User: What shape does this take?
Amino acid sequence: MAIEARTADKEVRDMLSFLNDLNTKQATDAERAFLGLLEGGCQVPIGVHADVEGENIRIEAIIAALDGSTILRDTINGKADDAVSLGQQLGKKMLAAGGQEILASIL
Assistant: This one.
């Protein structure tokens, strides 16, 4: 579920704030940071899943060739408060480990 509110409408944002789940926000922030770094969209075979347990987050990701001949997987663990940074770190690590070549062959 997603709810949008105008940034300037503090009253509405405050009224809706109880709906925000911190663990879900941290997980989606990590996933979006990873996808944003890789410029992933619906046509690119990349995936990411983040799971928050307590103060910790685990982020798992995959980059694959269109035909599945090359598949790159990796995981990073850390503090959930560092979700965005960890998502970006994992993206950079995977690009350097061959992900850049996989994506270049697709795009």
